[in-house]
Amino acid sequence: MPVFIFIFRQPFYAYDSANYYIFDDGRISIEDPKSFRQESGAELLEQKIFSAENHLSRIFLDAKIKKPVVAVLSLYADEKLLIRNNSFLFEKGQEIYWEFQPIRDSKNKKYTLEIKIPKNYRNMILFPFYAVKDGENHGALSINGEVSMDKALKVELVSEVGDPLEKIDLFDKKVMLNKPAFVRFIIYPAYIFFLLLFIMALRYALAFILNEKSDV
Amino acid sequence: MKEWLITNKIYILFLAFALIKGVIWILIIPPFLFPDEPAHFAYTQYIVEEKNLPKNDGKLSPHLLSKSEELEEAINLIKNDYKIWSMDPINLKIGESPNIPENFPSYSRKVNAENYKNAAAVYPPLYYAFEAIPYVIGYNLDIFHRVYLMRFFSLIFLLITLIFAHKIAFFISNDKVFSFTVAAVISLIPALNIISFGTINNDAALIALGQIMFYYLIRLLHSRNITAKEIIKGGALLGAVLLTKTQAVFFVPLTMGVFIYNGVKYGKLPHKLTGLIILFLTAGIAALPFFAPPILAYFSGSSEEIFYSLRNENFKMEQNALILLANDIVRRMAVFNTFWAEFLHTFASFRLYGEIAAGLLSVFALLGLTFAFVKFKGKELNHWLLFCLLSILPLEFLYTLLYFKNALINNYYQFPGQGRYYYILITPIIILFVFGLQNFFSLLKIPPRFIYAGLLFLFLLFHNLAFINLAPY
Predict the structure, then answer these.
(1) One domain for residues A103 and A63
(2) The pLDDT of residue B441 is above 60
(3) DSSP B222-281
(4) Which CATH number characterizes residue A87's domain?
(5) Cα(B155)–Cα(B197) distance, rounded to whole angstroms?
(6) Smallest CA–CA distance from B146 into chain A, residue
(7) Does one domain contain both A86 and A192?
(8) What is the structure's pLDDT at B268?
(9) How far is CA B196 from CA B38, B394, B422, in A?
(10) How much is the pLDDT for B302?
(11) Is there a single domain that holds both residue A129 and residue A143?
(12) Partner A contacted by B221 (CB < 8 A)
């Protein structure tokens, strides 16, 4: 039953861009993760993002909220086609996290993430702007309508894994992650042995419990 | 031999199942996933490499750990793939599967003893001395192989726990099926499998030796004659359990209570009090040199700095009686939740159902217990159940005392927020739970065996949900 739930019902997520800032044509790593400046005062931010997987469904945005702040987050497909939109009240210290209805065919698509902060709230939120190598080729970030060539917001995209086979594949990869060779070698045989013993133990345990004489 | 195997095949099968289940958990949980594991590993490494016990210097924090170069590099290798201090999803792209190098380079294992920091070093050393055995056996292997070897050793404590859980339940009930159900439920509780026995953690020794100590006390409770051999055995046991973790101190008043009750009920009180003093002296000789510093730190507050460093300023509260008491109730709800339903978290809806099921069953169990105390008034069974219930009181008193002390003096409201802190008394708690349910449903004319089978299915579901939940993280 838990296996069935996992494969067919449970939402399962994979990061598709953690620790990277993905622009039009692939990954651009940060020059130096520590070389960022925290700035406030922005009312309108437009950050180009690129989804490497289908079912894009969550966005994490690095920001520091000093006082409760209202913000409107919008996601545009190419040519300013609004596809997702929501307004938020973020509390002090809260993480900027936006979960939305998964975008089914988001793989290898470009989007623009727009963040609108009302004027009277703009000084209550600090955005860390990270130095990037080649923002000039893509117009990666625009602040208050002005294109900025050398910086980017830290955005992490998360995709929901929808396809059962893809989910099983990712499950396998995650189970094997960071395991020494001998563990990788025995993990599935041990699991098969566990399943066999599970069935036997359940059968005998039920017989033992339900049998009046309890002498199975 | 063959006859013995046939008679006991259900128990052999059960222990084999528990063992392979433990192995599966150990293999699935990535090395150093849980925040405690590097600290517990570092303690053992210090004992073997420095041939001494680690001693903290200055203020502590769970985020500050004096690591050997080897441990530092191992954590560096994996820290980009998941967040060490949280259970958030791993940063893994579909199609990728990073691996640990087959022969992880041999880095230095030495630790600087000066300005040493390790949150685990506030504990007594018995568990770590035991874990030094697999560390030494795998001395020529890389750190990851040693971590898995050490985890496998924890399974010995799991088996001890289950065997003594069954012995305690059988001693009380004289019912094989009831005892089997109690041991089966214990073996399937998610957090017990994952944190206590699935990783390197001194909880494993605390729980196992705690069950042995409880078995000793319950046998002694109505024993008319307490022999010198039993007193020495009790002293050695108490000493051993005190050497596992500071929380074991609650066994001191519990043991005292058992001796006084026995002396009052069956006579020879002065003799039995002398026996108690000898028992404490034996335990003291075994444990005091290692146990005294941790327990003094536990009550004086210096070890509490570990917890204060986690204090979130947003949680600061006004000190007034209503908030203090309300938070005490909220704290208990959190403890209850983590006791049963920890690690069902990504199954948001199922976790809720699990919590509701555990909550409802606990209410039914309480009602059933109340009914049983009336129904069996004056009967022997009631004495045992009452002892199970009363044995929880000193532990609860200890944690409540620490909560109020921290809240009133330090404005820290979150100690101790984990259900696993009660696993030291897991057997009496589950005995009361199963017995209460059995009596509650007997009012509805449902035979106990159906309740046992239902509990088996429910906890199998909990266990397997936790497994499928945690396995990919």
Answers:
(1) yes
(2) yes
(3) T-S---HHHHHHHHHHHHHHHTT-GGGGGHHHHHHHHHHHHHHHHS-HHHHHHHHHHHHH
(4) 2.60.120
(5) 6
(6) A180
(7) no
(8) 86
(9) 14, 22, 12
(10) 52
(11) yes
(12) no
* CA B385 to mean position of chain CA atoms: 21
Contact list in B for residue A182 (CB cut-off 8 A) is: 145, 148
Averaged pLDDT for residues B375-393 = 86
What is this model's ipTM?
0.79
Whether residues A64 and A98 share a domain: the answer is yes
Find the range with the poorest average confidence among A175-184, B17-26, B87-96.
B87-96
DSSP annotation of A30 reads B
Domain that holds residue A186: 164-210
Extract the tokens encoding A174: 């995650």
Instruction: Report residue B53: phi and psi, to 5°.
Output: -95, 140
Q: Answer whether residue A127 is part of any domain.
A: yes
Instruction: Name the A residues in 181-210 with CB < 8 Å from any B CB.
Output: 181-184, 186-187, 190-191, 193-194, 197-198, 200-202, 204-206, 208-210
**Hey, is B363 helix, strand or coil?**
helix
Cβ count near B303 (within 10 Å): 21
- Which residue in chain B is spatially nearest to A174 when comparing CA positions? B472
pLDDT tens track for A45-62: 888 887 877 788 888 887
Residues A176 and A107 grouped into a single domain: no
Same domain as A170, residue A156: no
Instruction: Kindly state whether residues A68 and A108 are assigned to the same domain.
Output: yes
| Per-residue confidence (pLDDT) for residue A23, from 0 to 100 | 44
> Please, what is the average pLDDT of chain B?
83
- Tell me whether residue A177 is in a domain: yes
Q: Mutate one of B4, B91, B455, B458 to test the A interface: name it (highest A CB count within 10 A).
A: B91
A160, A182, A201 - which closes a domain: A160
pLDDT > 90? residue B435: yes
> Is A112 in the same domain as A200?
no
Q: Where are the domains of chain B?
A: 2-33+157-470
- On whether residue A2 sits in a domain, the answer given is no
* Cβ proximity of B349 and B457 under 8 Å: no
> Does the distance separating the beta carbons of A5 and B465 come in below 8 Å?
yes
Q: Cβ of B447 under 8 Å from any chain A Cβ?
A: no
Count chain A–chain B contacts defined by CB atoms under 8 A. Answer: 152
Output the CA torsion sign for B117, B123, B129, B134.
negative
Q: Is residue A59 part of a domain?
A: yes
Please give the tally of structural domains in chain A: 2
